[in-house]
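JOB MANIFEST
job_type = single_chain_structure
chain_count = 1
residues = 252
[input]
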Amino acid sequence: MPGGRLTQQERQQIALGLADGLAYAEIARRLDRPTSTVTREVMRNGGPTAYRAELAHRATERRAQRRKRPAPRGAEAPPQPHGRDAEAVREYEETFTTVLMGSGMPAMCSRVMACLTLTDTGSLTASELVQRLQVSPASISKAIAFLEGQAFVRRERDERRRERYVVDDDVWYQSMVAAARSIAQVVEIARQGVGVLGSDTPAANRLEGIARFLDFVSESTSRAAEQARAILHTKPGTPPATAPAEPRADRG
């Protein structure tokens, strides 16, 4: 199996494979590369719909040049516990950040979220985030405000009364519930529009269709989140929570 960095020709093959709708595993098999290599390459360079071989190659060259430069004071990578490879962790954090950005999360929020998620404690102070990400305190503050609003992080005080930002096992559940609530608000507004525009008009029918679709999505999301939480996060000996009723596909 070949090792080292991907060549420009390999990147062109990846782009062709994506255009043909091939799965990452199939593209990797044709290149005789690990699937993780192809996945990381695509996600750090725009994702499957925006990947461009030439741009990806140039970006890789720029990253390689940056690594050769002396690191600024205070920018040294934190020591890695458990015998982890610091460079592999750094590259994975970059890939994870890119995936979060691809899901629609703003760039700085993605960096903060990835940084918090990949710590063993699942929490960092603002100053620790500033030091790790080499950004301004204001950037961290704005990112945390956004992530809190989406229920991705929470705040707590440690024994030194410092404010810490925390991600935990429940964070994705809370985020999914918040997303379902946001969708439900769109449903409510859409149904208000039906009354304003007049029933049986084209615009009102369109809004009703939106409301019915999103209503089903919202209830399905809430139900799936509750079920996953009950199954995956229930402590031994604790009976799982009763799942909510099946979502309704039609509300009239």
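[summary]
The chain is about 60% helix and 5% strand.
The first strand starts at residue 123 and ends at 125.
exit_status = 0
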